[in-house]
Design brief:
The chain is α+β, with helices and mostly antiparallel strands. It has one domain. It is built from 3 helices and 7 strands. Strands 1, 2, 3, 4, 5, 6 and 7 form a 7-stranded mixed sheet that branches. The longest helix is centred in the first third of the chain and has 14 residues, at 15-28. The chain starts with a strand and ends with a helix.
C-alpha cells in the first residue's frame, strides 16, 4: 500500500493558482518538481504509488503522484530534496487541516478520496466546494 506526503502549498490561494504556478515553473525548469528540505526515510513506500497532497487555505485540495525523489541543490548551494511530480493535479474531497511546517507522511487509509466526475460535488465550482467544506457540509 502506498505512503503519501502532505504539504502546505504556500502562496497559492486556490487550486488554479497552484496549477498556473506549476505550468510556468515546469515549463521553465523541467521536469516538474517541488523542492523541500528533508529527505523521506520511507522513500521506497512513497515511490510505490504515493502522492503529495496539497493543503491550500487550510483545506486538503488536490494530490499529485510522486514519480521520483532525489537529493538536489538549491540556487544558493544548500542541499535539498527534489520531489518529481506528475503534472496532473487531481482534486480530492476537501478536508480541514491545521497549519504545519514541512511535509508529513499520510497513510493511504487516511488520504482524502479523489473527486470523481459525475458526483454532485464534482460539478460545483472550486470556491463553492471550499466554502461548503469549511462549513463541514461536504
Amino acid at each position: 500500500m502506498p505512503l503519501h506526503l502532505i504539504k502546505l502549498s504556500v502562496g497559492a490561494a486556490s487550486l488554479d493558482d497552484l496549477r498556473q504556478w506549476q505550468l510556468q515553473h515546469g515549463a521553465a525548469f523541467p521536469p516538474l518538481r517541488h523542492r523541500t528540505r528533508n529527505f523521506p526515510r520511507r522513500v521506497v513506500e512513497v515511490l510505490d504509488g504515493g502522492s503529495i497532497y496539497w493543503v491550500i487555505n487550510r483545506l486538503v485540495t488536490a494530490r499529485q503522484r510522486i514519480t521520483g525523489i532525489a537529493e538536489g541543490t538549491r540556487d544558493d548551494g544548500t542541499r535539498c530534496t527534489e520531489l518529481f511530480l506528475d503534472p496532473l493535479l487531481v482534486p480530492v474531497q476537501p478536508s480541514f487541516k491545521k497549519p504545519f511546517q514541512g511535509w508529513r507522511y499520510l497513510p493511504h487509509e487516511d488520504a482524502p478520496r479523489d473527486v470523481v466526475r459525475g458526483e454532485v460535488d464534482a460539478a460545483l465550482p472550486e470556491a463553492l466546494r471550499r466554502e461548503l467544506a469549511t462549513l463541514a457540509l461536504i
